[in-house]
Amino acid sequence: MNAKSIEELHVYQKALKAADAVSAILKRPCFNRDARLREQLGASSGAVPAHMAEGFGLSTDRLFAQCLYRSRGESKETRAHLLVARGRDYVAADECNALCAAYEEIERMTTSLISHLKREDRRDRG
Questions:
Q1: Does residue 89 come out as left (phi exceeding 0), alpha (psi in the -120 to 50 range) or beta?
Q2: How far apart are CA 81 and CA 98, in angstroms?
Q3: 4: how many CB neighbours lie within 10 A of its CB?
Q4: How does pLDDT run across 71-92, given as a tens digit for each residue?
Q5: Exposure winner among 29, 44, 63, 97, fewest CB in 10 A?
Q6: Whole-angstrom Cα distance, residue 11 to residue 109?
Q7: Does the pLDDT of residue 126 top 60, yes or no?
Q8: Domains and CATH numbers, the chain
């Protein structure tokens, strides 16, 4: 991996875009009645790119990969919250499916990056 900044990583760009899409959904009045779901969905979607950025700044590929595992877990949690929101009719099925598909792609890309980092296993990323 030759990225000099986290912003160069395609998976990070996708995670930011997905988090922005979730943020737009959370502005809907229906989420005002469900503060817990709003907070959980906002936190998990924001944590996906945040864990990526945290890991990118660490000194070894192994540490970066650990943060990417957390990021992937947050992505799965975000999908679960989106499905709950769909079940409560806060999000249309087609919109939920599109966002869930975006997060599934992020998870696949993250898994791929983790595999790459495990093969490289550089000790000094700086």
A1: left
A2: 14
A3: 6
A4: 999 999 999 999 999 999 999 9
A5: 29
A6: 6
A7: no
A8: 10-120 (1.20.1440.60)
